[in-house]
Amino acid sequence: MRRPKTLLALSLAASAFAFGVWTVSADAGAPQKPTPLATAPLTAANGQIVAMRRLSESQYRSAITDIFGPDITVAGRFEPVVRPVGELIASGSSDAAISPAGLEQFDAMARVIAAQTFNEAHRSQFSDCTPADASAADVACASRILAPLGRYLFRRPLTTEEQAFYVKLAGSGAGPTKSFYKGIELALAAMLTSPNFLYIIETAEPDPANPGELRLDNYSRATRLAMTLWNTTPNDMLLDAAAAGSLTDQAKLESIANRMTQSPRMEAGVRAFFADMLKFEKFDEMAKDPVIYPYFNQDVLKALPEQMLRTISDHLLTRNGDYRDLFTTRRTFMTRALGGIYQVRVPVSDGWVPYEFSPADDRAGLLGQAGFLALYSHSGRSSPTLRGRAIRELMMCQPVPNPPGNVNFTAVQDTENKAMPTARIRLSAHNSDPVCAACHKITDPPGLSLEKFDGIGKYRAAENGAQIDINGALGSAKFSGGAGLGQAMNASGATTQCVASRALEYTTGRVVSDEALVQSTEKAFAAKGYGIRSLFFQVMTSPQNWRVPKSAPVGATRVSLNR
Amino acid sequence: MISQRMPKLLAAGAIALGAGSMGAAPQPFTPQAIGDAPARSLPAPPADGVMGFVVSDFVQPIVEGKDACPDGPVPKLREAYIASLPAAERERLTRKENEAELLRAWQMTAFGKNGTNICSQPEMFDRPTFRTVQSKVAWGLDLDEGNATDTCAHDTFTTPNGQTGIDNQEYRALGCKLEWRTKDGVGGDNQIGMKQFHNSGEWTQVILLRGVDSLENDPSVEVVYANTPDRPMIDAKGNYLPGITYSISTKPPRERNVLKGRIVGGVLMTDPGDIKLTQTWGQGGARDIRGNRARWDYRKARLRLEFQPDGSLKGMMAGYRPVADPIISPALGGAGSALVAGIDCAGELATLRKYADGLKDPKTGKCNGISATQRISAVPAYINDINQRRASR
Amino acid sequence: MLVIKPGNSGTPWETDVNGTRLAVGLAILGFAQAVSAQPADLPIAPARTDQFPNGFKVIRAKDGQVYATKDGHTLYGMDMRTLIAFGPDPALYCRDECTKVWEPMLAPPGSKPNIAFPRGFGSPPPPAGQAPRPAAAPAASNSDLNPDGLYNTQRAPDWTLIQGASGPQWVYKSWHLVFTRKGDKPGSTAHDGADNLTWNTLKFVPPVPKLTAPQSVAAAYRDGAYILTHKDGRALFTGICRKDCTDWSPLTAPAAGRGLGEWTVSRSGDTPQWLYRGKPVYVGAALDTPAPIPANGKVLRP
């Protein structure tokens, strides 16, 4: 299903003395106001625009670090991309606009980055020419500086018009400030607030294999490969390959995809993918009652998602593990702060150390980690329902409906009620309402098996002095405790199919409704022992995934920059 | 007169303990907190005999009440100056309109010839000794156990729960200072300030026991009492959380004392030995020279720790401090300590010297140490010792 | 008369520093653990310049390089800060018994003191009825000199002159009054740390080299020489990894970077990487860990 097409209206304070407004519309014929006074071609440098996806915060940060180095700091608040219900943020980015306030933030960040890049300490690193007069414009030198930067930032070479525009902008800045480098700063800041940087603009070309259809062109492929597999901007190898047309050559594409999936940089891509799939943005708003959970603090909060990501990365990449074993592995990593939650000794004061739970701990895989258990709990109590729903929706791609608006939650919330000391008893009372029971039958049986872990994932032997029953079920599988749940998840085909469909969605920025495609991807995943590298290799090299769906082309995009 | 008696230990279990250590903090100090024998039903120690603790309370204990200092607290420099004046002059100078004159007059008492001041060069000033604790009751241990060979004549105290022969001359000398005891007879800034320093992680201390076969009776236990740079983890009420890991390290604060001890009737007592602990100063740390300000140096010191049913420890450390140690911090503060805080470093040093009762120099017969006591509470923790950490790398 | 002024780089300074040439050929791997047994105010910081007074030189002693007299007697610093209880001016401490064992290193004849032990917060209040004496105009925060014309102890050069008990005497790093130990053999450091760390050998640590390098690069003094490190304290190294390369993290360079001095950018790998003198640079573990770099890695030196 197509969503409303992208419409952006961005106000850009391009400099202290030049105020520009540009509008971008992916809708052909959309009103264009105000009338352009000066035009900078936005894109379509390489073909027809078929998709625009906003850079994520981590992609933005990685791009700046890769291009300008780790000592250039990115300071500012990123307007979040809204997650569509049941989908990935990656899908949401395809529809993400930037509000005027959000653009102000991007503008402020751009100015800070540009100022650092061309300050006295750094400018020599980013210029291979010296202006004839440092207090005036120098077209030739500005071109030599800005053209390579534009190639990295826009992830393709600048067009002649673009280059002329930014060089002119640098000159306009150099005049009043009497500084060549201030002018360069201005031009760089403008590039950094350009939709060509802030959006991944995918463009297409005719597909020779399928006459009448389109396929992503080389530079769009370079960007998709880099953003998906390494969560960053394309490097020289990819940009050069795109320039040479290698990324539409299947053999060369496979060679590059193979190199990229085997690279240590794959870790960044895998982390970003699972942070999206497992809704890690929810950690930003996680709060726990400090009286009920004294072990929860900011150090713990920071460590919870990191522990899960380290487990994922270690299992799937370092060990080339089977994805299904992510639900059973007892291997993880520990910090001193987390040692309090798990009540284990940690051999170091700072940093992370490998740790393996004992079978008696009943902590199996991701679902046994405090991050998952705490995230899917309330601020003052555990929740078998939230945990079960997350298992169903995030790990198995099985949507669970929201509760109706008029539900009475009194029974489940009354944790002080001596007559109903455990969550199982309280849920049982709550489920006397058949409307509620229908969904709780799906969510609660797996969630109840984790009830020996409280609302921050700390072990508890009893709840309100009452013994905790940790029998659970997942479909037809019956089991006890976290280890049993992990085994059931491991054996469930839904988890591998789910991650395969999420990989497709993450890569393309849209929900994949083609069941056959999901199944064939999952089959290839299975054939390679459910290794995450092979899954992404499959997704990135399948010609089908580079074809543009017939509904995709979004018409001519017009951009104007008014000064 | 040198005391010649043995301590009388109360029969185990004679006084029931109150609730465990995990209640709301800070708790008012009560005699039961450190002086009683433990309640029964102590848990069995871990199979490997290793037990770790983080110290949650470390402060000079006082016995509250007004009878300890019937003449009131030790006056500050200003009050001491006023008290030294003839009545008429005292009346004149304390009038509001003479405030500036009074200020200059008392501040002048902090300075001597050639730019010396009462805190940087306390030995160069002749000041009267302080009012001292008059009551017979104090916390502490019997450090000399009647051995007169290396001590100087001193009176002893009895603890609130009846142990006699207690050596705590630091308390006698300084226990009437306002920092120790307010004019109302309750704990002063020391009690609050030490807790705050402790909670901030500036001087976290840990205790590691090895070879524990029984919490009731064990003839041989190794005790490591050390500093760690790791911050304590504390709940919203100020309680130290059990089950947190602390690493004894080679980085400052780095003191690590290894002691031998035994458990009798649920009470762990170590043999006399030197105990050094150190404090990492945050604010004001730049003034420290050679770490002296941060030093806690106890000679011939002992730990007396009682196992509690909730797994925690309560007790004391006592030993002889080098006699000038208690004034190191104001001495490094120099004239500011006198002018701002009104501290009479010279009077304090003179008082400490007068009541010094240990570390006798055999040549001069003079005592260079003063008996002193710290109250200790500790909660269970995981402790990485230096050798363990190396082995695990 | 000789007055040493700030910035005076002529006589009596000597520019020939043997020490800077001594610092080679030492162990490459297995950096010594950081000296953590010292209080925060020790060890003495690296020299600010490679110039020092005539009559002194740098020798190699048991635990590293120390300043010494021309005939090889180790220089000791008497840390004045530890002697404040002696009096308000600890520079005058060493007389009588002290001078029987410690020989002050006096300034050349005619020299005038150019630094003094700070009095700090120690003045008595003004007489009643008088306003406090107006404080002298404070020295500018970036000034090396106090209003009295003497050096600010925080910003003084390495070698200054103070009025000692026996006359104007050399001081190192503002606090360490310079002596030798009478009767010691040349090269002996037997009294290092004496009297509760009041007396300490004057260890020579060469000036921190000025680097033309990426911002993430710093220098650290290890085993008698400077090596290049990451500014976060991790080791930098080079070499060729043939297998098990997980510990070989490239020192990432900006893709758009054009290089800096002897540093260039390689774009051939997955990550843009700094090359130093043409060799790829990797980041190891923290310097104070047992194995900061892999066995076949080589440290980098400025």
UniProtKB/TrEMBL annotation, chain A:
Keywords: Signal. Residues 216-344 form the DUF1592 domain. Coiled coil: none annotated. It comes from the Bacteria. InterPro entries: DUF1585 (IPR011478), DUF1588 (IPR013039), DUF1592 (IPR013042), DUF1595 (IPR013043). Residues 1-20 form the signal peptide. Residues 363-462 form the DUF1588 domain. Residues 478-543 form the DUF1585 domain. This is DUF1588 domain-containing protein.
UniProtKB/TrEMBL annotation, chain B:
Keywords: Signal. It comes from the Bacteria. This is Uncharacterized protein. Residues 1-24 form the signal peptide.
UniProtKB/TrEMBL annotation, chain C:
Residues 141-150 have a biased composition (Polar residues). Residues 130-140 have a biased composition (Low complexity). It comes from the Bacteria. Residues 113-150 are annotated as: Disordered. PANTHER family: BLL4220 PROTEIN. This is Lipoprotein. It comes from Novosphingobium aquae.
